[in-house]
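Pipeline run #58 for the internal structure catalog. This entry was flagged by the ingest filter as a single-chain record with no existing model, so it goes straight to prediction. Upstream metadata was stripped on purpose; only the residue string is passed forward. Reviewer on rotation: M.T. Logging verbosity set to normal.
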Amino acid sequence: MFLRTLAGHWLKQRLSPGEVYGLTFTIGLVLTGLFSRAFGSVVQDVLAKNPLVRVDRHILHFVYSHGDPHLTSAVKPFEVLFSPIR
């Protein structure tokens, strides 16, 4: 049986919630790997000038061209109050 081998024992300890490097740490590592892969994919698309990146630029220009200066000035006090940079 696999769980009786050295590798199985290590895996059982790794996924045990009661151990120091248990299930929480392992899940954190897996999620970090997945998000790093997703970020790397986005960076690769930007560097390769993927057509979808050009669409993003058009959407950005559309949003900026339809901005309302009165709404922007109304939101400024909230930005000052809740900004983490002081």
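catalog note: The CA atoms of residues 60 and 69 lie 17 Å apart.
catalog note: The chain is about 75% helix and 0% strand.
status: ready for reviewer M.T.
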